[in-house]
Specification:
The protein is of the alpha+beta class and 502 residues long. It has helices spanning 3-6, 8-25, 37-53, 108-117, 151-169, 189-201, 205-214, 223-230, 235-243, 248-260, 282-292, 358-376, 396-407, 412-421, 428-437, 442-451, 455-467, 489-501; strands at residues 59-67, 70-77, 80-87, 93-94, 131-133, 140-146, 174-180, 268-271, 274-277, 324-328, 339-340, 347-353, 381-387, 475-478, 481-484. The two termini are 43 Å apart.
């Protein structure tokens, strides 16, 4: 923070950025007129979960204290500690406080030395032939992995992209590269990506890209040709390209490449190989770009760059990719919950999941079958399922109870699989229908589910998960080592093999 004193424009940028964030994040956060600080804290946490994170993770309150005329909330979001502030009348919420008092200034030579002597975590990325704006010889390359249906990608487009273009891309300092990362729970994301590539054949990618984000709410099966007509494209050529899914392999290649580079949600960015996740404010991009240009000291040395709390589609914490957390939680309780594999296996995986969470389904579809085949069925791993129903998933609690009720009749895992295989239909009536499909005694199952027999059992799992630092789903503990998010199979394999060989 010493550098700020030498740079008054940076102070102004930070203040304006903070005010912008506050104005965006506190839209509708009206005065609460509450005298009880705990009530204010509860209201703030509910607002953060419902309006800011919007289903990407869960914020929980660690503590609240009075500081500098405000209430300071120590908030946990996906294992990350965030200090958030709220006025004592409950009228304004500030996502983060920035200390602007500093002591000695730092010289230009110190900045250069700090930049040159620091090492940040980077990944290499191939941008040859990629769709881009700006000079190909620019010192800084930003690669965006985008999903055209993701509201946070639209937020980045609306609030931040134009500023980056104006200051850096149009001046030759930054090359901005576009790549695709269509998430499977956004049905229009892949077709939109295909359409944009077909527009690119006729030199209109950027125009089509902008049309999509300006009219994102209109995405549908029939809109793509309409937008192509608006751009005066050759419709015969466009329709042939789109209907044949000509660029599907390219889009899948972008997606797979992104995953291999640590992208787990959208928008995801690599700035000279440095990861920045979520719809971050302009100031977050400016900081890294200026570092890469050699104008500021490098921050967050040795780790992926993140900045504050920003929303993202598919990003468990909203501000960072799913990750392996270095600390080990000793003696994670298995609570006699259902498990698969050898009860005496050397490696125990305890998963905390939510039946309505799309990322839990992704893990179930893509990773769990491989784990089961290689490790669980061979007796190397014991896999324990525990419940962590998030409050903004209205069907998750009853789905968890339904699995427990099915367990009374020896069909826990069959119900578990049915729920995930039919995640879009898990209301109580659906759950009772699944019980019939499994040949369960319907009266016994229905009485169990309707009576709330296992409500407290499910809540116990949730509470213990919070005690272990779980704040989003899925979260896994592999012999106590925490793995957060719908990680690829390779991430599990790395830890399991280490534990088996230890």
């Amino acid at each position: 923070m010493h550098y700020i004193k030498e740079n008054p424009w940076q102070v102004i940028t930070i203040i304006l950025g903070l005010l912008l964030i506050a104005s965006i994040f506190t839209n509708g956060f009206n005065s609460l007129n509450l005298s009880d600080k705990n009530k204010i804290a509860d209201k703030a946490i509910n607002f953060i979960n419902n309006e800011l994170l919007q289903g990407q993770a869960t914020a929980t309150l660690n503590s609240i204290i009075s500081e500098k005329g405000l209430y300071k909330l120590d908030v946990n979001v996906a294992g990350q500690k965030i200090d958030t502030y709220i006025t004592k009348d409950g009228s304004l919420l500030f996502p983060q406080g920035i200390p602007i008092e500093a002591s000695d200034s730092i010289s230009t030579s110190d900045v250069t030395q700090s930049t040159q002597g620091s090492e940040v975590s980077r990944v290499s990325i191939d941008v040859e032939g990629a769709i881009s704006e700006g000079s190909e010889n620019a010192k800084v390359v930003i690669v965006e992995y985008l999903d055209f249906q993701c509201p946070f990608c639209k937020r980045f487009f609306d609030q931040t992209l134009s500023q980056i273009k104006s200051k850096y891309v149009n001046t030759g300092k930054v090359r901005f590269v576009y790549k695709h990362f269509p998430l499977d729970f956004h049905p229009y994301a892949e077709p939109a990506a295909l359409a944009s590539e077909c527009a690119n054949e006729q030199g209109k990618f950027l125009e089509y890209h902008d049309l999509i984000f300006k009219n994102q709410e209109q995405l549908s099966d029939t809109i793509y040709s309409i937008w192509a007509q608006q751009l005066n494209l050759d419709m015969s050529k466009f329709n042939d390209c789109f209907n044949s899914k000509k660029y599907l392999d390219k889009i899948k290649s972008d997606y797979n490449e992104g995953q291999s580079k640590g992208i787990s949600g959208t928008p995801g960015f690599l700035i000279n190989g440095r990861l920045l996740s979520g719809a971050q404010p302009y100031s977050a991009f400016e900081q890294i770009i200026e570092e890469e240009l050699g104008n500021r000291p490098v921050t967050n040395v040795g780790s992926a760059q993140t900045a504050g709390s920003a929303g993202g589609c598919g990003i468990p914490s909203g501000d960072a990719p799913a990750q392996i957390v270095d600390d080990v939680v000793e003696d994670v309780n298995q609570d006699d919950d259902p498990f698969l594999g050898d009860k005496n296996a050397k490696v125990v995986i305890v998963s905390f999941e939510d039946y309505q969470c799309p990322f839990c389904k992704r893990a179930f579809d893509e990773t769990f079958p491989l784990l089961k085949k290689e490790y669980i069925d061979t007796g190397k791993v014991k896999y324990v399922y525990r419940d962590f129903p998030l409050s903004f998933h209205p069907f998750a609690q009853k789905a968890a109870e339904a699995a427990e009720c099915a367990d009374d009749q020896g069909k826990y895992w069959e119900m578990h699989d049915l729920i995930f295989n039919n995640q879009d239909a898990i209301e109580v009536s659906d759950l009772k229908q699944y019980a019939s499909q499994l040949g369960l005694n319907s009266n016994e199952f229905n009485n169990c589910l309707d009576s709330g027999k296992y409500t407290q059992e499910v809540q116990k799992d949730f509470n213990e998960g919070q005690n272990y630092g779980v704040s989003g789903t899925p979260t896994f503990f592999i012999n106590g080592k925490r793995l957060v998010g719908a990680q690829p199979y390779s991430a599990f394999k790395l830890i399991i093999d280490q534990e088996l060989n230890s």
